[in-house]
Amino acid sequence: MRKLTFSENKLLKHTDFFNWQVSNSVHESKILARFHIEKRHEYVLYNKLSRQARLIGNLIMKLDQEDPVRLERSAQLIEKMYSIGLIPLKGSLEQVDRINASCFCRRRLGVVMVRIKMVPTLKVAVSYIKHGHVRVGMDIIQDPAYLVTRSMEDYITWTDSSAIKKRIAEYNDMRDDFELMNC
Predict the structure, then answer these.
(1) Per the database record, which ranges form the RNA-binding S4 domain (predicted)?
(2) Would you call 148 exposed, middle or buried from its count of C-beta atoms within 10 A (0-12, 13-18, 19+)?
(3) In which residue ranges of the chain is CATH 3.10.290.10 found?
(4) pLDDT tens readout for residues 92-128
């Protein structure tokens, strides 16, 4: 084997081959691309939140079946996870055990916009959100990582000054000049 050059030695000095950390970068990169997540730390946060939800669910499951505290806390946890939209049905604590980072990713504003067919693709949705064309309720949202609960899904609309809203109104022959002028 040849002797390493100075620059190779310098690069290898910072690499520890004995304590190599295994990363799930392939799965992570697929999720980041699938949900059009630009900041990796958001995905890491979703992983932490899902891990904490599963941990709380497991701790509640360890309590006695007839314990009134268990019944109350499990009902609260299931209701909270359902209202956020992380579980599909109000069932049992086993559904809470299936929560993962993808569940949080599915509740992002762009993904919800695609699901309710406001936009054709996730990339377009993220672009519209960043440019300020979307509002939830009365608030204009410019962060694609905004998590939408089940109750807020009905309040996702275009902003009043949005050119997209004007084009849709023109296309549907529902253009109201008074409304579009913001008078």
Answers:
(1) 107-173
(2) buried
(3) 107-180
(4) 899 999 999 999 999 999 999 999 999 999 999 999 9
Please give the full DSSP string across 26-81, using - where no structure is assigned: HHHHHHHHHTT---HHHHHHHHHHHHHHHHHHHHHHTS-TT-HHHHHHHHHHHHHH
Rounded to the nearest integer, the mean pLDDT of the chain is 90
**Contacts with 120 (C-beta within 8 Å, 6 or more apart), sequence order:** 114
- Rounded CA-CA distance 128/26 in Å is 28
Residue 48 structure tokens: 């932490």
- Cβ neighbours of residue 175 closer than 8 Å, sequence gap 6 or more: 166, 169
**Distance in angstroms (rounded) separating the CA atoms of residues 113 and 50:** 23
Contact 151, 83 (CB under 8 A): yes
83-118 in b/e burial notation, b at 16+ Cβ within 10 A?
ebbbbeeeeebebbeebebebbbebbbbbbbbeeeb
CATH topology of domain 107-180: 3.10.290
Euclidean distance between CA atoms 133 and 119, whole angstroms: 12
The CA distance from 157 to 114, in Å, is 13
